[in-house]
Protein: Metal-dependent hydrolase
Amino acid sequence: MMVLTHILVGLSLAVPVTVVAPSLAGPAALGGIIGGFVPDLDLLGGQHRKTLHFPVLGLIPAGAGVVVALLVPGPLTAAVAVGGVAFVVHSASDALGGGRELRPWERTNTDAVYDHYRGRWLAARYLVPYDGHPRDLLVAVLAAIPVLAVYDGPVRWVTVSALLLGTVYALVRKRIPKYVRPIVE
Ligand SMILES: [Zn+2]
Structure:
């Protein structure tokens, strides 16, 4: 899925925190954005969907972060908790998309995301056939709806911008391999 979708899904994870504790809305949103975004930094170095993607082992720090935030609620613990959950949700949900290849619609590589616990690649499920597929955009829109319902200000702008960029990306996605290695997966 697009990194923009992951950011919006991360933001949607901040929504329950914001509803329960409005004073933590900002830190929760920041955590959601960072946690949704960080795994795909492994596009810049290391092995994409392996170096910074932890679909199974990521559950441990994410769970610990949630427990700490429940025990000691505050801006930092809320940000870390939402960020940790967004991080593992990003990693795990990449298995629902396409494989690691320049043209995922060709389905020549079914490796989706690396499971460090079992030491093997998880197979692509193609529920979202490839990043930038209309279904990817649909996930982004569905994630954005609750965010737009509870947030205004900068978070709303980030959300609207991500939706607009995601729409443009979806429109040009299949032409990208001709020009450049896709940086948003
Ligand atoms: Zn990813």
